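User: tokens in, sequence out, please.
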């Protein structure tokens, strides 16, 4: 039987994991989060984004949540990982300095509700950021070497895959300021609207 790459740690790592780690390593430093902060990785999957935070951000704490127990069984050390739904995060309001999600929110059944939850658990002034694969280019990184990512909101181009939801102008009772994020790669500059400061 062929393993389900969206539910088993080893199968996902063999299929997409190498790309997930490259994107996370490029994404985290561009967020500008100061050292010693509390991070939440929503939809952490196999832990690539949490590992990048641990490697380059000098965090006080990193927590990763994902609904897939199969993904969580193989995550690395250094962060706390637990099973949770992005639409109902098990944390009090204003808990984290950085709330991130990589390659996940577009798979949540109600991504708008999930985006609101990310904003809810973020402290005032926190960074809330997310990204998804560049579906407009047909996820060519699977065929080419590292084509790039598109971060949402606005990552709809071409309609080949689900896009990331936009945070509203106000979230969790606070105004949201957006800034563009660029992830350069061998295929050129990729722009994003995925970084929000609350």
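Assistant: Sequence out:
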């Amino acid at each position: 039987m062929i393993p389900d790459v969206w539910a088993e740690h080893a199968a996902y790592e063999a299929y997409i994991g190498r790309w997930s780690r490259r994107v996370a390593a490029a994404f985290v430093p561009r967020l500008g989060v100061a050292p010693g902060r509390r991070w939440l990785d929503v939809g952490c999957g196999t832990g690539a984004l949490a590992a990048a935070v641990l490697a380059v951000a000098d965090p006080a704490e990193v927590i990763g949540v994902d609904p897939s127990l199969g993904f969580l069984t193989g995550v690395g050390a250094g962060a706390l990982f637990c099973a949770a739904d992005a639409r109902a995060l098990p944390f009090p309001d204003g808990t984290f300095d950085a709330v991130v999600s990589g390659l996940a929110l577009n798979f949540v059944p109600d991504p708008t509700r999930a985006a609101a939850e990310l904003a809810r658990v973020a402290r005032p002034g926190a960074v809330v950021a997310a990204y998804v694969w560049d579906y407009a280019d047909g996820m060519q990184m699977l065929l080419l070497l590292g084509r790039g990512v598109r971060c949402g909101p606005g990552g709809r181009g071409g309609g080949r895959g689900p896009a990331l939801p936009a945070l509203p102008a106000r979230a969790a009772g606070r105004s949201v300021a957006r800034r563009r994020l660029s992830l350069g790669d061998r295929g050129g500059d990729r722009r994003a609207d995925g970084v929000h400061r609350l």
